[in-house]
Amino acid sequence: MIYQIHRYPAELIDVVSLSAERIVIRPVLPQDEDLTSAFFRSLSPRSRHDRFMMSLREPPRDLMRRFTQIDYRDHLALVAEMFANGREIVIAEARYVRKPDPTVAEFAVSVAEPWQGKGLAGLLLAKLVCRAAVLGVERMVGETLASNARMLALARKAQFTIRPSGEVRGVMLLQRELSAPRVGQGCNAVDLDALAA
Ligand SMILES: CC(C)(COP(=O)(O)OP(=O)(O)OC[C@H]1O[C@@H](n2cnc3c(N)ncnc32)[C@H](O)[C@@H]1OP(=O)(O)O)[C@@H](O)C(=O)NCCC(=O)NCCS
């Protein structure tokens, strides 16, 4: 099957320095299927469980395809990668997918263990929120296990409200209203916090 990529939002490519390493943040590409799969396999069972809210030993192929063949509008995924011995290694991923109501999008994020606690998830989430707002999303939502203290702390810090799911026990619902960004403001701007609702 020939896959034709939608317009690639190259303006979202960014380079940041983290623990003295050069990290490239960019929208995912269809050819990242193996890199993405390797990333999820590299997570600890606990992190993988927290990310998918179920035990998942091997990331399913069709899921990895859906994670990498995206339209960059209704489904946007960013990967953060570093380079070691000339090889690309994905160290984090974050995505949103719009709901049937296109003003609402659901996000998820994960960061490889050695890179956790350095602000990477917060940065990826801020970029996602910014881009989503630019494309007309008015509310960002997410779900996480009530036991996932790291995600709850991140959500709180990123100005999401948190409440228990009325439907599934042990699941918390995250929600943040987005404000329209200022015209011409890019999502690589340092003052991402200015987008706070
Ligand atoms: C949750 C997760 C994405 C956070 O990633 P991260 O890059 O470590 O997060 P950040 O460094 O950006 O931290 C942002 C805030 O989250 C909180 N946080 C992060 N790690 C924490 C920890 N180990 N304990 C408590 N709070 C933590 C802090 O408030 C932190 O802000 P601060 O350090 O400036 O005070 C990461 O732990 C992860 O990938 N977990 C497994 C997958 C997962 O649970 N995904 C969520 C599904 S939606």
Strand order of the largest sheet: 1-2-3-4-5-6-8-7
Overall number of structural domains: 1
Distinct ligands: coenzyme A
Number of helices: 5
Beta strand %: 25-35%
Labels describing this entry:
single chain; globular; 25% helix; Aminopeptidase; binds coenzyme A; alpha+beta; 197 residues; eight-stranded mixed β-sheet; disordered C terminus
Protein topology:
Elements: E1 14-18, E2 21-27, H1 33-42, H2 45-52, H3 61-68, E3 75-84, E4 87-98, E5 104-111, H4 120-134, E6 139-145, H5 149-157, E7 161-164, E8 171-177
Parallel strand pairs: 5-6
Antiparallel strand pairs: 1-2, 2-3, 3-4, 4-5, 6-8, 7-8
Helix pairs in contact: 1-3
The chain binds coenzyme A (COA).
Describe the structure.
A hairpin with a 6-residue loop joins strand 7 and strand 8 (171-177). This protein has a single domain, classed as Aminopeptidase (3-Layer(aba) Sandwich). The longest helix has 15 residues, at 120-134. The chain has helices at 33-42, 45-52, 61-68, 120-134, 149-157; strands at 14-18, 21-27, 75-84, 87-98, 104-111, 139-145, 161-164, 171-177. The radius of gyration is 16 Å and the shape is globular. The protein is α+β, with helices and mostly antiparallel strands. The structure holds coenzyme A (COA). Coenzyme A (COA) binds at residues 47, 50-51, 108-111, 116-122, 142, 144, 148-151, 153-154, 157. Coenzyme A binds next to helix 2, strand 5, helix 4, strand 6 and helix 5.
